[in-house]
Structures are given as C-alpha cells and as structure tokens.
Amino acid sequence: MSRITSVRGKAILAIGAALCAASPAMAQRADRSIEIYHIFDLKTSATRAEVTRAITDSLNANVTDSDTVMPLVRGEPPEKPGTFELVDALENSRMGGLAALIPAAQRAQLKQVKCDGAVWIANAVRRIRGSQNLRLTMCLFPYTEGYHLDVYAVDTEEKGGGLAAKLGRAIAGAVVKDPRDWTNKTIVGTVRSVSRATGATVTYVEGQPAFEGAPWNDENTLLPQDSEKTPE
What does the DSSP assignment read for 32-50? Predict the structure, then answer.
C-alpha cells in the first residue's frame, strides 16, 4: 500500500512541477506597440471654436478619458501651418541610462508630443482591459486657408498574460472586434465630424501607416455604435 502511495505522490509532484514550469510562460506579458501619425489639411473659414467643437464631440464618444487645452496664440495665422514634434523624456536626461532597461513598448509611452503654435490640443486615452491601451494626441494648427489637424498615437495591443487576461481579451474581441480598427475609426470620425459641421475640404497630407483613399468622405463607412463602446 505504501508503495502505491509513494508512486501516486511522485506522480502528483511531477504534475505540480510541470504546472509550475508552464505557468510563467502562460502568464508572460507580450505587449505590441505601434506609433501612428496622421496629418490632415482642413480648408475652411470656420472659427477655432466651431472646428474644435466638432472634433471634441466625435473624440469623446470613442475614448475612455480626454483633456483639452486652448493655448493663447496671438496674431494673424501664418501662411504655412506648424506641426507636432516628438520628445523622448529619457533622452539627454539624468535618467537616460535607464532607457536600455525599459521595454520598447513601455518606452514608446514615455514620448511627449510638443504642439508649439497649435490653437487647440487634446490628449485622450482608450483602454480595453486585457486588450488595448491607446494614447492619442491631437494638435490643431491654424494657417491662412484653414487648419492642419496633426494626430499622434501609441497603440498598444496586450498579448499573453494569464487566464483572466485571455478571457477578458476574448470578450472584448467579441464586442469591439479588432481594437486597432477602432483606432482608425476614431481618427476618421473626428475628421468626418469637422467636414460635416463646417463644410471643410479635407486633404490627407501624410501619415504612417497611411490611409488608403478618403474614408472620411465615405458615407457607407460605419463608425462604432453605442453598444460597441465598452471602455474599462
């Protein structure tokens, strides 16, 4: 009897050891981040208040949190619009040596966006637990013929993790499908909102990854519905 007990005990220990060995791999995080930027030319005689109201109404419907600021910009609009700049918070700082220790996906989150000369700046986030963490910045630059809307985003797709993370990701995927499709819908929606509210003529200047065609002009492109909006 003792021999049988001993064999069973060894089997249980072997199974336990296998589970312990497997659990770190099962629970390992594997985030995937992508940096995105887009620049849109909005030719319009609409006021700053009209343009920013249209952007804000659309943006707030598709993100978890947002904050906006209207900097004091004096004088006549320039002939050419400004553009955003990226600043690495760790570069050329006393903490620069830590950069090598920070995973690339997390370091992208530390980049700061400078919008010098913009008349309106928005910072927004969208979180889907276990699935996506989107950080979005929009800068509105005036010029003589209208505005440029510069968009910069760090879109982090969460991978791996334990059973709870995988289950949460499966549920979120069933509701909102591919989170990165949502990112494009959010950006397209803001541009379309400005076009409809102000009559602005929209021209795509540049971006990465670049949009194909002009989806903001496509009336048949469906934007997320209220039932799909499931932020954390």
Answer: EEEEEEEEEEEE----HHH
